[in-house]
Amino acid sequence: MHTGLLNAEQFRRWREAYEAAGIAADEIPPAELCTAAVNADALIASDAPRAITSANLLAPGREVVISPLLRELELSPPDLGRLRLPLLGWALLIGVSALFRRPTVPAEEVQRTRAAANWLAELAEERGTVLVVTHASVRRLVARELERLGWTRDARGRGMRHWSAWGFGREGTF
Fold first, then answer.
1. Nearest Cα to 39, choosing from 163, 100, 122, 128?
2. Which residues have C-beta within 8 Å of that of residue 158, sequence separation ≥ 6?
3. DSSP 8-state code for residue 38
């Protein structure tokens, strides 16, 4: 974890390094997610090293299908010149600015998440339970697309925190 203050360019470089990194060696996923991963008919991960490592921790020895369709969205910080903030400050600034300016998701990202949702829906129809290891922002868009395709989100989902999980099914599956 980085400590200290970063300007926007330093934050961008930190984020690139974060996306390229795996996860902490002592990370232990929740047992219920491990059980779900072991029992899933397909285990999918984004192509980010941390997602691949997470999938391997959830179900060691299991085949993991890796897809760039599930890669995290680009979360660019606003250009504030030389202003320096801690990482938490940049995260809050990105989140708050997204709330107030209601940013438009680039068309290519909408297409990518639509393709991901279609692929996952088809895979679930073919194989059964699909467990996907991905990232918060892309998960929101894929979820929206799955709902548009007629899938329902399980109300018992576990928010957006680390190791959180959302379930989707066809009507009557929950």
1. 128
2. 164, 165, 166
3. H
Q: Token pair of 98, please?
A: 């997204």
Residues 6 or more apart from 173 whose CB is under 8 A from it?
A: 152
- Domains, the chain: 8-153 (3.40.50)
Q: What are the pLDDT tens digits along the chain (174 aa)?
A: 667 899 988 888 888 888 888 888 889 999 999 999 999 999 999 999 999 999 999 999 999 999 999 998 877 777 788 889 998 888 888 777 666 655 567 888 899 999 999 999 999 999 999 999 998 889 989 999 999 999 999 877 667 778 888 899 987 665
Burial tier of 125 (Cβ tally within 10 Å: 0-12, 13-18, 19+): exposed
- Rounded Cα gap, residues 103 and 126, in angstroms: 35
Helix (H, G, I), strand (E, B) or coil at 125: helix
Quick one: DSSP state of residue 130? E
- Which residue, 71, 154, 164, 168, is CA-closest to 121? 168
| Nearest CA-CA partner of 56 in 165, 150, 131, 2 | 131
Rounded Cα distance, 8 and 81, in Å: 7
Is residue 139 within 8 A of residue 147, CB to CB? The reply is no
pTM: 0.83
